[in-house]
């Protein structure tokens, strides 16, 4: 049996069309419910949608992203279709091709449409060129910023979606960064309300800002963390990890001691992110990057006496993948309480802003005195490439993979 679909319809003052849109969508194959998100309407949108059989929820914060987040959260089914409320007419048979295109490994299906009155300036001049440069794995899409699509919300952390016009792109990039396919089907000719240059100017500014915010996060550079236990990760790297997770990066954490308190805390808190796996270090040899990965970032403890096997395992994992996944190994300043880390020479200060609340919660769960967020705002790493040769032989060579740059990983 095909999994049912929840259709969400963000709507603001769409009384003229909403009842017909709801009725038509409810009759489509695979549709289990229609959820209309009343986004600050001052007309009868909500009443008419409810009368047509929709579940109506209210989102008082205006903006496409806020409405989509509310609708996705309220949906009863994991497969969610997002549809505009201002469509003049559309072919429901073609719309049904989106959920019909679901299959193994597919996380999102875009509906590619054409409008004789719209030459798609956003797609031609901004979105497709940006994707070609930043996410070439999505270059095959003809209408990448289409607001009509169906996706599996269980694959992504949808509570952190963009709150403006970039939300449709954010969902697509998160599915792509999680390692799933983004497909596209033709849904025919659609006539939208006429949009002036001012509308496109505002949309372009929001989308351009979104792309700029995602570029340093390197969404398709998968992150792997190896440590003795979860406490090491929480103290020294959770801000960095959380910052990447907030944008949808896939992260795998391998721990020597899965039963330590810190490991249990880490596992519980990271369980809120669908793109995270927390596994025993013994499973490291089975690691496989996801299909859309373009690079690899590996975090491991700085070498110290009695420090366990996490670093040697990290180097082995990196070397096994380096030929097809460029990246770097970065060392965490792991130490015993009060002991100075001899030789640790940090050469990177990554961004951690979106991971600070997660780190603060983890430290609190460990019973650690929690400093203000500002006091957590630094995590330092040393590149493996700068590690003295004397510390390398016991842990692996990476001799041919020294990285002259110590920039973003």
TrEMBL record:
Keywords: Glycosyltransferase, Magnesium, Transferase. Pfam families: Glycos_transf_2. GO terms for molecular function: glycosyltransferase activity. InterPro entries: Glyco_trans_2-like, Glycosyltransferase_2, Nucleotide-diphossugar_trans. Its cofactor is Mg(2+). Its EC number is 2.4.1.266. It is an enzyme of class 2 (transferase). It comes from the Bacteria. Residues 6-87 form the Glycosyltransferase 2-like domain. Belongs to the glycosyltransferase 2 family. This is Glucosyl-3-phosphoglycerate synthase. It comes from Roseovarius mucosus. The gene is gpgS.
